[in-house]
Amino acid sequence: MRLYLSSFRLGDHPEHLVRLTGEGARIAVIANSCDGAPPEVRREAVQQELDALGGIGLQPREIDLRELAGAADVREAVADVDVLWVRGGNTFVLRVALQRSGADVVLERAVRADSLVWGGYSAGGCVLAPSLRGLDLVDPVDEVAQVQPGADVVWDGLGILDRPFVPHWSSPGHPETDMIDEVVAHYDTSGTSYWKLRDGQALVVDGDTSTVV
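The chain above was modelled as a monomer; its predicted structure follows.
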C-alpha cells in the first residue's frame, strides 16, 4: 500500500509522491470535497491541482465522482490511472460522493491491493480514517444536505488508515488551524491516537513503513 497524504497542497516534499508513483505517472484529481462551492470556484480549484501536479512531471486529469454510477463506472474511470489525488475541502461531502458513486469500495480495494497510489491533502487524507467523528468540529456536516439533498451523513471513513489524520495543526495562516486544536483536544480526551501534521508536512506510507516528512 502506498499513500502520500499532505497537510496542505503538495507539501514541502512532493518528490516523495513522485517516488511512490514514478515519473510521468497518470494521476486522477478527485475534487468532490468542493462540490458545495460555486461552479466557477470549483473549476478554479480543479485547475489549480492540475497545474501543480503537471508542474512536478505527472500527467493529471479530473475524475468527477458525480458522473459515475456504480462500481463498473468507477473501475472504467480509473483503468488507466496510476495514482489518485484527492484534494481538500469538506470531508463529509467527499465521503458521501465516494459512497454514492460506488468509489469507496472500489478505490479502497485498489489501494489495499497496491494497484493504485492514494495521494491528496486535508480532506483527502481525513477520509481514510476508520471514523470521521470529531472532524465535524471543523467541517460542517450540514453541507452534505445542501450538496446531496436527502443524503445521510456518513460517519465511517474508508479505514485505510488505522487512526484519524489531522491536518493544519499548528499552522499559522491557515484559517482552520484554531479549529484543528479543538479536534486534537477531542481525540486526546477520548484517548484516540491520531496522525497530526503541520502544513508543509506529509505522511508517506510505503508498504509497512510510515514516515512524516
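The chain has a mean pLDDT of 97.
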